[in-house]
Each structure stands twice: as structure tokens, then as C-alpha cells.
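**User:**
Make up any protein.

**Assistant:**
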Amino acid sequence: MKNLKFITSLFLTALLTLTSCQDEIDSENGQNPNTNNSESQTASNLERTSMYDGSFDDFLDGTSCSSILLPVVATVNGQQVSIISQSDYQLVLNILGQFTNDNDTVTLQFPLSVRLSNYTEVIVANQGEYDAIIDACETAENTGKDAISCLDIDFPITILTYSLNLEQTGSLVIQSEQQLYAYMNNMGNTELFSVKYPITATLSNNSTVTLTSDLDLQASIEDCLDTEDAEEEAEEEAKNLETILVNGAFKVQTFINAGVNKASDYANYTIDFANDKTCTAIHSTLSAVQGTYNVTSETEVYLNLTFAGNATFNLLNNKWEVTSFSNTSISLKSTANAAITLVLTQI
């Protein structure tokens, strides 16, 4: 394990150096496959896609630039949890997911060990040292120097090396992300390289793309980062929708099915969404209808409704895409049939 102050200082110094160098790159650099150097866009793309991805435990540590090395002890919403292996992550997720509209808290027990984006492992003695890691990560994210996790290069790949006069000097077979990161991070300013294309990469949706040039790699990264941004925006919107649902009571304003508005079937019902993901349709004289709901997101926001024991409300059982919402109204369309729509308004 290395000293945290040294590692954090080194990380920030490398970050500032890379930022400075990027500003001086010739716009043509990297487009000729024999002219990629350590300052080129391709070098940056390869380094960022090969960084250690610590996003898999963000629910626990709140930062994607590192991951916590197990075992660790954490207090989650007031409950102490011993996390011995990754199978214990579910214990944390179950506590965090118990209620939809609460303020989740995770307090880590120090000292603990983390693996940083450069694959270095360090011991963190206290919260102050951990905050320094989070600050360094936020700096990297804000300047576009953090790990790219939406595209994974499939290994092995071959790197061809060149001298400054563009004569090939050798080749290197890269077998893993860590090996690629080490190569890119340690490249000298007198070295040139190219990737031997075609190569393949796996996107975050598990689809595979074939890349035939540096420009292909750049375009695929831009596309997947745009998708990632849309997913993050949808995730935030889903949280906002959960808050609106839990804090209000709703009625069916319109329910269009087979071209007919059947809202009158629900006219005397009030739908209440509870914090534990249950919902209840309350009628002044008839029995209440029990159900469950769940708000999810991909690049769009979805509201899943499931009612039981009532044929009228069973018609609302659907995975609904949220087309728009405000504090007073939620508009939905069926993911199975876009002609079926539902509008809930707050009472």
C-alpha cells in the first residue's frame, strides 16, 4: 500500500499535465495511424477506457474513480453491515431500496483500503483522506479525464510502435485493461504508436461494435458517453418522480384504451403511493384496491403499476413510459401499445 497524500498529489499532477498537453495537440495528430503520441486523442481514449473502473460499488462509496477493497464495515441508514464479499452488496442494496423517498446515508468505518483508477491500492485512515479521493475524482470528471466505463475494448489487441521518423520499431500484444493502461501511462514523448485495426469493443448494453480506425473509436466513445449522460439524467428524473408520487394523492384524469377514455371508471378513486413502494386506490364506499409500484429508468423513465383483485384496476397493470410530469400531473403511455395512455393528476 502506498501513502495516500503522495498518490493523490501524483494523480492531480498527472491530471493537470495531461490537460495542459491536450491543449497543444495538432488537430491532425492521431488521424494518421502512425502519428499517435502520448498527447494524442487516441492515447487519451485508450488510457481512459483502460482505467480501473470503480463504478460497480458507487452505492457504497459514492465515487466511480475507486472501489473499496473488502472486507469493510459500513453503517447504512443506521444499520451496521459487515461486507465480506461482493455477495454482501445485496444487504446494502436491500436497505437502501427499502423506501423510495428517504435520505439514504452510508458511513464507512476507517481505516479501509481502496483501489484507485490507476490500479494503485492505498490505505485510507479517515474521512478527510477519503474526501480527498472524492475531490480528485470530481476534478477528473469535470475535466473529462475520468475512466470511460461505457465501452470496453475486447482483448487481445496489438499495438504497433514507431520511431519519430515513422519507421516501425516493433509490436506489442496487449492482453488486459491494466496492461493497456500501464503502456499508455508510461509512454515517452519520443514514442509513436498505432492500433492494429480492426478491433472489437463491448458497450454497456452488452452489444459489440467493430472499430476499424481511431476515428471509429472516438465516435463510439462519443455515442456511448451521450447515452450514459441520458441514463444519468433519466435516473435523476426518476428520483424526482418518486418524490412527487409519495408526497401526493392522485386521480385518473384520462385513461385511453382502444380509443375510448375510461377515466369515469376511476372517478371516485384516489390513488395513494406509499414510501414502501405499495399503492392503494381508495374509494368512499367500495373496498380499497391494493397494489405495488416501481419507478425505473434507462434513457427514459418508467412507472410500473401492479394492482390485484380488481378487474378495473387490473387494466392499469403495465410498464408505463413517463412522457412528461410535473408536480401536478403525470402523463404515461404503455410500453406494449403506445396508443394506450394514462394521465394522473394530483388532487
